[in-house]
Amino acid sequence: MEQTLSIIKPDAVAKGVIGKIVDRFESNGLKIAAMRKIKLSREDAGKFYEVHKERPFFGELVDFMTSGPVVVMVLEGDNAVVKNRELMGATNPKEAAPGTIRADFAQSIDANAVHGSDSLENAKGEIEFFFAKRDIS
Ligand code: RTP
Ligand code: MG
What we know:
Blueprint: E1 2-8, H1 10-15, H2 18-27, E2 31-38, H3 42-48, H4 58-65, E3 70-77, H5 80-88, H6 101-105, E4 114-116, H7 120-130
Antiparallel strand pairs: 1-3, 1-4, 2-3
Bound molecules: ribavirin triphosphate (RTP) and magnesium ion (MG).
């Protein structure tokens, strides 16, 4: 069993599609092992996306991720990291395959509905960033 971190981003929370996105995961064999709604501080968002610190879009990414509440989740299942990325679709919703979360709920490369860990190693670090062991079951 693998675990990965998912974030429902501020655009999707504001649109009221938390339930529809959670349904995509549960209907495709990913269990919700932990879940919390929070508002990220600029410090949190900057640390979480530290790998992108030098990228030109970093400021906008932090602005966007702190613009409203998000839902952070641990998803658990076989091949969870890759399966979650498949369900999410491409970063730019215009390039996301039909039926993916980003194709159906995202509007732009910034407001792209969800985050998902991109490797098992990063998943472990991202899960620890938000959750204690006792929060996950
Ligand atoms: P995420 O980390 O949020 O799951 O997204 P991702 O792996 O599909 O994409 P990544 O390359 O990690 O980029 C993180 C977020 O930064 C924004 N971005 N903007 N303007 C741009 O060229 C650009 N590239 C990336 C996106 O919102 C992306 O989700
Ligand atoms: Mg990424």
